[in-house]
Amino acid sequence: MNAAEYKARMQQKKQNLLLPEIPRYRQLTEQLYQALQGDVVYDLMKRIGADKMDDRHLRIKMEGESLRVSESVTPHLYNLLEGVKEALNFEHPVDFFVVSSSSLNAGAYCYTSIDPDSPYIVQINSALIDVMSEKELCSVVGHELGHLADENMFLKDIISFVFPPDPQTGMPNLPLPLRYKFFLWKQMSELFADRYGYLAVKDLDACISSEFKLKSGLKLDKMEVNISAFIEENRNILGHYINGKGLSLNDGYTHPVSPIRIEALNLFANARTEKELNDRMNVLIDAIARLNTEEIEDYMVYFMASAGLIMANADGQVTQEEIEHILLSMSSYYMFPKSILEQVSQCDCYKIFNESVQRILDINPDMKADLFSYIVNLTVTDHKFDQKELDLMFQIGHQTFGFSDEVIFSFLTAGIRQNFIPSISSIS
Q: Which percentage of the chain shows pLDDT scores above 90?
């Protein structure tokens, strides 16, 4: 699938959606696809057969170790699950398997089978059937079918092909700038699937109570749970995430925290217009995308951008290596550093630099060495030493940080030994 085919399929699918999609999820999918040169990689995958999976071994394993839901053996459950498919206009055949497990979980095997007619596989842990009401179970199954209906999920195969998963964590070994975006993308895919969970039953209480049970393991029929009060209390907790006092992305979670998922479900059910849905959903996505909760780290982003641009422009020629170094450094603090770098480039860099340094040192005076080390490292990023860059580095060291020549030389020596690599073209 190339970019044109992907966009055509998305446009066709958009006409069939029962509710508007999540635009930022699609946008991030396209950005990651382009960054990974998806056209080239996917064509290579097709040539070697890595775009499809032989599911016979998995199917035999599932048949041997779990119960396949069938019309003859489990007619009531079969009709219930087929009803979910019908509610979602899901036409591809699906084999549902019940697995003996005390874990409240379900899963869909999102892959493209070698046999295009091979049924998809959805696994339902037996504990779900014991704990969930029929509507709650249907919302969970609808969520899993949402993953299977999600045309964006083919990107997961490209990412796994380029960056094979770690054997211990099962997560792809992505470089830092992509790693956070991948976690954000994964979490948005869960919100996308949650929308299908709601469409499967169109019952907000059932969706929220299923989320409550998944997280707590409690049976609500033994408790007097007020769902309306639970939603209101959830919003109070949600404020911690929206206001930057809680994180989910840094910890590598592949699912959004419950307060965000519950509020998203509430939006799917009650948003009156597409604009209202998108605007309020963007607030939730911004909360997911946040990488820090500390005020000082917000200033670090602007320090790195302004200092980077000042040093890179010292010799009158900004190199791609310098831009990449700046963006990579900023990626530890902000999800989309390019937007900040472009913003700072249109402003007074020296003013932003001085203000951010002052703010950072007011909060933590011991950050002097770290800030100046970043500036020193920028001077060796482009594989050469320029006298104008060195003069500027000494000027900043003296005037901004109050360092002596001796101290500046020690920073420069450490920077050279740790980071300087001569240009190969200069010695070839």
A: 55
**So what's the pLDDT on residue 428?**
52
* Separation between Cα atoms, residue 305 and residue 343, nearest integer Å: 9
Question: Tokens 């998108």 identify what position?
Answer: 278
| DSSP helix/strand/coil, 186 | helix
C-beta atoms surrounding 35 within 10 Å: 11
> Residue 67 forms beta bridges with which residues?
98
The pair phi, psi for residue 68, each rounded to 5°, is: -80, 130
Q: Compute the distance between CA of residue 401 and CA of residue 357 in angstroms, rounded to an integer.
A: 9
pLDDT tens digits, 268-321: 999 999 899 999 999 999 989 888 778 898 899 999 999 999 998 887 888 888
Residue 310, SS3 per DSSP: helix
CA distances from 158 to 24, 154, 185, 241, 344 (A): 20, 7, 14, 31, 34
Element (H, E) at 345: helix 337-345
| pTM of the model as a whole | 0.82
Scan for tokens 């956070």, then name that residue: 180
